[in-house]
Amino acid sequence: MRLEINGLVKAFDGKTAVLDYVNFNDDVDTLALIGRSGCGKSTLLRILGGLIPASGGTVCLDGEPVSEDERHRKKIGFVFQQGGLFSHLSALDNITLPLVKVHGFSKSKAQERAFELLDRFGLAGEAGKKPSQLSGGQKQRIAIARAVAPKPRMLLLDEPTSALDPEYTTEVLDMIRELKDEKLSFIIATHEMGFALHACEKMVFLYDGKIAEYGESREVFANPKTSELKEFLSKILEWKV
Amino acid sequence: MSIFTSYSEKTHPFKATFNLVLMSLLITALFWLALSLVGVRLNFSFLAPLSGRIFDGYLMTVCLSAASFFISLLLGVACAAMQSGKILVLRYFAKLYVIAIRGTPLIMQVYLFFYLMGTAYGITNRFICGVLILSLFEGAYIAEIVRGSLLSMDGTQLEAAKAVGFTKKQQLALVVLPQLLARTLPALTGQFASMIKDSSLLCMIALIELTQTLREISAMNFKMFECYMLLGVLYLSLTLPITYASKRLEQRFDYEA
Description:
The structure holds two protein chains of two kinds. Chain A has a six-stranded mixed β-sheet with strand order 6-7-8-3-9-10, sandwiched between helices. In chain A, strands 2-1-4-5 form a four-stranded antiparallel β-sheet, covered by helices on one side. Chain A starts with a strand and ends with a helix. Chain A has helices spanning 41-48, 70-73, 91-101, 107-120, 136-148, 166-180, 193-199, 217-222, 227-237, and strands at residues 2-10, 19-27, 30-34, 56-61, 64-65, 76-79, 154-158, 186-189, 202-207, 210-216. The longest helix of chain A has 15 residues, at 166-180. Chain A contains nine helices and ten strands. Chain A is α/β, with parallel strands linked by helices. The longest helix of chain B has 33 residues, at 51-83. Chain B is mainly α. Chain B contains nine helices and no strands. The radius of gyration of chain B is 23 Å and the shape is flat. In chain B, α3 (88-103) crosses α5 (126-151), α6 (155-163) runs antiparallel to α7 and α8 packs antiparallel against α9. Chain B has helices spanning 13-38, 51-83, 88-103, 106-120, 126-151, 155-163, 168-198, 210-221, 224-252. The chains are: A alpha/beta, B mainly alpha. The A-B interface holds A 49-51, 70, 73-74, 76, 78, 80, 82-88, 97-98, 101-103, 130-133, 146-147, 150 and B 154, 156-157, 159-167, 170, 174-175, 178-179, 182, 255-257.
């Protein structure tokens, strides 16, 4: 999928820009957004997902301008760091409701699709449970199932494992990896360097609201050019085995 | 572990029954002692021929509370919307309303509204006046309940509603309203129980509801104790089921916690 970003700026309430003139133009299949907290990863994903407006500049996906309306949003799947499942609905209804109300599925078709995904990811037993009855890992996997159920053109994941224990982190990342093998395009903001390196073809390092480095994940990771990325990597990997 | 204590929520049924009976005996003894100290022997038989009047009063209380509940609900929701809206005159007005009503006693509002506003604007029907006064009073409390649950709405839930592609209307109907309802319903039900009790102060404007009925009967018969005990039981017959319903609703919606 072609992602074109031209002069993208985002400032909240007239404060300093969170995204400061971001430019990007390349085909994206699997992309990792890395960078320290507050560098603009979430903001960039939210603009791509049409959840917040940009302050300036343009963003196009496959030549279509990204805008803040539901016609754009329905083509994109979005997974939040946590709390994205509707708390008043069961896991099953979380998946079927958007299918029925937004994508025009019949109720039975929507259930069929939901169970297809739940079965596949070993979540069928949780179908009737409310989010408060699920583990953190189950919640995130159901959120991902909800996002991919309508077969979106792209999946955006905003630090989907940051709020999880290591055990749950693996099960969520495994699921994304499996979806990747089915040619689902995604952009993921993450601190999981192993995943960014092995499961994402390309990598963007954001620093102070700008793209400081971009390239093939292996290349960016093995040969960081900027001192900022070198410092970031050494910090984040300091205590890894 | 003794038979008198329990450290958990769940208590063995035998122990629970034993202690409930013990408590009831103690309370009965306390009342019995008080009655014998003031030299009163309870006799409820004089109430039998008056049951029609009492029933009318009971019905009046139910109607008053039910009518006020619906009007105060509308007032409360409107007021909460104004408080979080962008039109400043309305926002300040709503804030002042809540502060003034919650900060003053109901009896003052009853008198002021009935004798000043009621007379000035020609609202002479006591029932309508009573419903208006009670609605204005409870509306301020309901506004705070609604505003509280509006504030407690989780931002991510709203963002997720956008993200799955819902239109503005769908976001409201499929996510915001059901969640708000779940949060407010238990508290609203509790407020309804309060409203039934608060309606008793409308006896001050000689509205013949339950309290006023029994006040009149007790003034005629000089049987104060019997009348007020019956009054308590009759109010409990209304408030207990509602309180129970409120508890059940709370359990039903506890996923929100």
